[in-house]
Write a structure and sequence with these properties.
Low-confidence stretches: none
Number of strands: 22
Shape: globular
Strand order of the largest sheet: 1-3-6-9-12-15-18-21
Distance between the termini: 40 Å
Helix content: under 10%
Mean pLDDT: 90
């Protein structure tokens, strides 16, 4: 897979080709790596996107505001923030989280992270449902595992649901307002 990097700490749309190191938007055969040095930045995706893999640095935010964002071969480490609002994030393989995943919907529509493999929430990693509608982490294959050494929480009114996986690890699970 080709590794295509976000080139500068400028907030823009995922589909802006000029902001990627190859001059093209990453596709199904590429790893999209949001690791531009410098200040914090946000890359927004509001349509269906498919990449081979996705990775974020600590200063990067991937804000998925619509559509289905698919990383078919899993992720490198999410060290930044991934926000899923009114959308679905689908990950094949292993999803490594050391940063923050916010499931944040503003209405009753469901927000979903679908992982076809393992979800590893590392120490310091946070997965939080902050919205008013239902938020779920779904693993469609029997035997899929969520390893939680960080924090799983539902601080929004809709709560956080885990469907189809065994949760292991030494992390914390908090039930909030939902």
């Amino acid at each position: 897979m080709a590794q295509i990097h976000w080139t500068s700490p400028v907030s823009a749309d995922f589909s802006t080709a000029a902001d990627w190191s190859s001059g093209t938007v990453p596709g199904a055969g590429d790893d999209a790596i949001l690791d531009a040095a410098g200040s914090a930045f946000t890359v927004t995706s509001n349509v269906d996107e498919t990449v081979g893999g996705i990775q974020t640095a600590s200063n990067a935010t991937l804000d998925i505001t619509g559509g289905n964002f698919t990383a078919s071969a899993g992720t490198g480490v999410n060290a930044g923030t991934i926000i899923v609002g009114e959308a679905t994030l689908t990950v094949g393989g292993t999803f490594n989280n050391a940063g923050t995943i916010n499931l944040d919907n503003s209405d009753i529509q469901e927000v979903q992270v679908a992982v076809d493999g393992s979800l590893i929430n590392q120490a310091g990693g946070i997965i939080d449902a902050t919205g008013v509608g239902r938020a779920s982490v779904f693993t469609p294959i029997a035997g899929d595992v969520i390893i939680n050494d960080g924090t799983l929480e539902g601080t929004g009114a809709g709560g956080l649901e885990f469907d189809g996986a065994t949760i292991t690890g030494s992390g914390r699970i908090f039930a909030g307002a939902g």
